[in-house]
Amino acid sequence: MSRTAMETANKSDDLSDILKSPKVKDLSDIPIPDVPDRPSLESILNEEEELLSLEELGITDLDLIQDDSTQPTPSFSADSDYRTTILTKSTNTFDKDTVSTIGQMESISKELKQVLTRGTGQPTCIAVGQFVAVGLSTGTVLVFDAKQHLRACLTPPSGPEKFGSVSAVSINFDSSRLLVGYARGPVTKWDLTNFQCLQECTSGFPPGHAVLQVKFTCTPSMAVFLNSGGSIFVLEFSKRLGLRSYSTFLVFSGSHGEACFMEPLCLPSQPSYVLNKYFLLVIATVSKLMIVTFKPNVQLIATFSLTAPVQYLPLLAWQFCVVQTSTGTSVDPILTCVRGDQVTYVQTHVSSTNAVPTFSVLKHIKFPYNILSFHWLTSQLAILMDSKEFVYIIHVRSATVLQKVDVSHVELIYNSSMFKSLATGGNVSEALRRGADNTCHNSIAVNGYKLFILGISSVTVISLLSWEERVNRLSTNNDFEGALTLAGQFYKGKAKAIAGLNGSRKERQQTVAAKIMDLIGNYVPLYLGVGCEALANDVMKLTAYFTRLAQVCIESCILIKDIDLLLATIYNEFCTDYHHNMQPVNSREVFLDTLQQFIVNDSLPNLSPLVAKDFVDYFISAGKVRELEKCLVHMNVKNLNIQKLIVFCWKNSLYDALLSVYNTGLNDYTSPLVELLLQLRSAMKGDQQLLDEYQSMGYKLLVYISGCLAGRAYPKGDIPPNHVKAVKINVYKTLLAKRNEHDSSDQSSYPFLHTLLHFDTREFLNVLSLAFEEDDFGTTEGIPTRQGIVDVLLEIMVGDRKSFSASQIGSLFTFLARHTVRHKGVIHVDKRLYDQVVEFLTNPDETVRHYEREHALLELYNSNALVQFDEEKLLALAEKAKFYRVCEVLYGKKRQFSNVLSCYWRDPNRKDAAFAYIHQIMSGDEQYSEAEREEVEKTAMEHLQLLVSTDTSATARLVLMDFPHCLPDVTHKLRRTPETLYKFLEGIFNQRLSSSVRNDFIPPSQVSELYIDLLCRFNCTRVLAFLKMNEHYRVDEALKIVRKYKILDATAHLLEIVGEVKEAFDLIMSVWKKKMLEANERFSQTTSVTQDLKNAVTKNNSIMVAMVELCERNAYRLAESSREDLWFMLLNEMISHVHASKNWPNKPLRHTYQDMLSKLLNSMTSYLSLPTIVMKVLTDEAYSSGNFKDVKGLIMGMLETYNYEETLHKTTNHILFHDVRNSFVQLHTMSQRGLSPDSTNCAICSRQALAAQHNSGKDNVVVFRSCGHLFHESCIRSTAIIHADLTSDSDLFCPLCNNRASSKKPTSDGVKPSLSRKMTIVRKDTFTRAAMKQKQIKQEGDDIELDPQQLANLRQIRHQSSSFTLEQSDSPELNLAPPPLNIT
């Protein structure tokens, strides 16, 4: 075609002239879009995606590519005007989570529709680079440029009839070459700069196979293709002396298993990259995944097995992923293999420059749908299509679906005819044919951030939106908050599906920050002005609107670290009055309110002077005093009027803020301390309790002092390092001041220490304890200072003992004791002071604060402060002062355990603790001797009444666990108080049921009978339950007891145990009759059902059930006549009550009696014959004169029971028959199998038994299956071991095995050994036939020569045969399992 013709074709809407043209000749003067500079590999991979981490991928020891390599930039880039052409007919509605758009390539689709309309073919495959190449079924390839202008129609020079349809197309990385594969096998190569056919590849590979895939490699002169025969070939192109040529070689042969997909790894053109010397190609067959290198030699590197439905062929894809490792960042190719609903990621490992790469499976993912197409968009995004033609954009790291698009309307082109190779006669395997219906990967292509889908009359594009487009979509749809939030995610690098954001991390953040600033500058005035007019009359909604707008702006400015924008531009906008004071909500105040949360969490520590002043003034005017205090401790107050703040804090008692302002604003740490101590001292004068305000202030002072002495600021942070030492010195000087210089009337010594010690002695001493642990007190200057503080404390508290309580003095000496032990030789305290403290604490005349004094003395003793004190004297003082806890410790140290128990019992608050102490000693380890345990047991038994009065249940538990042998003595001692004895025994028997105590102890029968007697007296309703749950009593004695107290249900239970069933039945019947008669009188006179009537019915029904259960339990113990008498006695009584209820006005009560009768009859049918019951019912006066409907229910119930039992009987017989039959079938099968005796000689006479020449004229042979021993029948019958009752062949047993078994375990008389049925008698005529057969085989075998391999196989078979044994059980075992269901 000429250039003029080509230009005309470009202007025409009709392709008919172009399609008729044989080929394109010259397009040199048509402007081709220039290829932009190729970016480096890192610039492509370092996108704004979250990279796969090392832990997720399992990647270690990866090498980072250091060279600045280049890689082709996708022609359809994010900044190209091509996008607007594609998306002119977008089908997407607005969705804030949308990450892509879908649309048609209008011009290309229009051309395809014309092709389809004129019948000049239909599209078959597509490839995308700087051009879009669409293959047609007529053998022509349509080439379109980035603006969708048709640039060429490429037809093979030899004619399309010879090559057939276009089956596969591929464009190389710089879009300069095009490879076309055809349905009849050839491959053509085209130059896309002038649209000339460079080569036709028609030889070097088997003809008659369709090209399924054709791919360029990373080398421009090399390509690979896969044909329908399952073979893969490499095409190498060359040009010498102006002549072009090609060569092919086979990489994979389809005879080894048909390949159905391949994917070469295209590496960056970097000489230093480790994998550059390998040409990696991954091949997928139906069952395997293989990775090979075909340069310099074809070599198999790795294989993996594939399992998935055969109707889905494998899919493959490579992707470079940037991975963070412990040594840095590395870039490695990751292989993705898809089959059905399974996705597998395989990692490439390269340990050194000379090592062959290795591969390992990273992880498997199972999707809820089958996948037809899989492609990578970025290192973190994949796009795939399922079998229902839904496209999913997947975030690989989180395995989440970002967007789902339905493309079923596209009418996707499937490549089924190519994979079935219909153009060449369909000569493909069955596996390839079955998977062909779901193949479409030649109709789907990915370029850059776009997925191209070829339909029957259109090309549809799904484009990943750039980060800026996504932000703009939200902002233009009035979602300002969503736009800023999404931009913030892009800034932090945590967004998913990032596209179009390149450069280093800092550059990317600068780009996004500029966008955020632009959004804020454009939209804040709009939202504060026109945007809020609709909410003008709703205060709550308008406040929430301003608050959320302020929050978003503040968060965004903090994120991009542009506080000036926030405190200048944005604050000014919120201060601007857009509505001339007509707005019910002040946006400025809302903004200041919103600042609070960010100040408190330290996101905005430094406000500008103007904003800080407005903030403080607003909170003061609004009365938000406590909120302002929380903010002041986090703010930099140097920009404020500090004097004004201090006055405000004193006025409103904002002590936290006051301390913070003094510390950070004036660098003064002692002035606020002195002022607050003076206020606290003034408030503590007098005996009145401190107000909550001063209580809070006091504890804040303690925290403040502790922080200052440790170098920590209050209430947060640290004191500047250059001020720490001075602060500590000044605080110590303030605390140790001997006189109050601020109040001349106060003449007390050490006023501030007095104040703090009186406020909370223990906590203040804890503050000093923490301070003493600082390194400052370990120096030569610090040691005297610590001793000085101790001396001052002793002077204050011991010198003025009356003003401090015993607890306070005890706390001081406990504090001193601990630090004296911890700092031996450093802190010195006069030991006589401890004696004075002990005498003070144990003063018996002091009756107040008993617990405090005792606790203080105990702390002193436990802190080893009283080591020098005489323990006998201390014990005497403690006894006199009734300090029983101290006595307990001292007696325990002396191992006087009886005295320890006495301390427990004398202490009214700790009596119950004695039980745990006794149990600890009795169940303890070897630290307690037997004598000590006996002493404790004796003491406990002597004080039994005291233990019982303290806790009866605990006493029972103690006796049962530790003194079970003393139970009879305990019960004897408690007989004088029956109620106490009853509670004690109740605890004993209840504890026996508990899993936490020993339950192997069985109480004596006398104890159980005593408890039964007490139960009858104090809780008769529990007698029957106890009798049922316990059996350790004498029945006759128990029967006497319950008869004595007339406990009828218990009496009936015991009568049943002794066999007096009739008497037990009569006893229950008498009670039931009485109850029924009483109920009938009430039922006959009422028409309503009250709760009392329901209770009476329930009670009568339970008694009847008890009689029924009595009859059922004893049904087989009684004679038939006696059994019938009991059942019919109960039936007659029930029928009489049913007959009496016919005239009752209350219908529900009548139905209740009829239900009771029905239940009774149902129970009877299991123990009495149905005819007997039916006859009894029909002859009864209550029914003989009635209608059939009166007995219909009874008769039908009996018939249903009969049918159920008949079905059960048949099913059981069927199951037994099935199992018996299976067992005998197995036995029969075993009996038909061949025998393998261990020898051909008789085990008794040692003569030949199997050879025909030795056995002629002799008797039969007996072979035992289990052991393989062989005997002559005459020999074994004449053996003396044969049993005297031998009656048949089945009674024979192996004498050798029987002797061995008998030597180990003798059998009882009359029992046959287990081997008696494991033998077979071989008749003598068998030998003749066997000998003739053996002779014939030998003659034939003489002429056969076996090669070494056959001989080896024969030896292996013999070895396996010799090691094979078959065991059969002596008798069949019935499984008693239902037969399998035959479902047709």
Would you give an account of this structure?
There is one protein chain. The protein is an alpha+beta fold and 1384 residues long. The chain is 47% helix and 14% strand. The protein has 53 helices and 31 strands. The strands form eight sheets. A four-stranded antiparallel sheet has the order 1-28-27-26. A four-stranded antiparallel sheet has the order 2-3-4-5. Strand 3 (132-136) and strand 4 (141-144) form a beta hairpin. Helix 26 runs parallel beside helix 28. Mean pLDDT is 78; it is low at 1-93, 1280-1287, 1299-1318, 1326-1331, 1337-1344 and 1360-1384.
Chain-wise SSE layout:
Blueprint: H1 3-11, H2 16-20, H3 41-45, H4 54-57, H5 82-86, E1 100-104, H6 106-117, E2 123-128, E3 132-136, E4 141-144, E5 150-154, H7 160-163, E6 166-171, E7 177-182, E8 187-191, E9 196-201, E10 211-216, E11 222-227, E12 232-240, E13 243-252, E14 259-264, E15 280-285, E16 288-293, E17 299-305, E18 315-325, E19 328-339, E20 342-349, E21 358-366, E22 371-376, E23 381-386, E24 390-395, E25 400-406, H8 416-419, H9 430-435, E26 444-447, E27 450-454, E28 459-464, H10 467-476, H11 480-492, H12 505-528, H13 539-559, H14 563-575, H15 587-600, H16 609-621, H17 625-632, H18 642-651, H19 655-666, H20 671-683, H21 692-710, H22 724-735, H23 751-759, H24 761-772, H25 782-797, H26 806-822, H27 831-841, H28 850-862, H29 871-881, H30 884-894, H31 897-906, H32 913-922, H33 930-942, H34 944-950, H35 952-962, H36 967-973, H37 978-992, H38 1005-1018, H39 1023-1029, H40 1035-1044, H41 1048-1057, H42 1061-1083, H43 1091-1113, H44 1120-1140, H45 1147-1164, H46 1170-1179, H47 1181-1184, H48 1188-1231, H49 1252-1255, E29 1261-1264, E30 1270-1272, H50 1273-1277, ...
Helix pairs in contact: 10-11, 11-12, 11-13, 12-13, 12-14, 13-14, 13-15, 17-19, 18-19, 20-21, 20-23, 21-22, 21-24, 23-24, 24-26, 25-26, 26-27, 26-28, 29-30, 30-31, 32-35, 34-35, 35-37, 37-38, 38-40, 39-41, 40-41, 41-42, 42-43, 42-44, 43-44, 43-45, 44-45
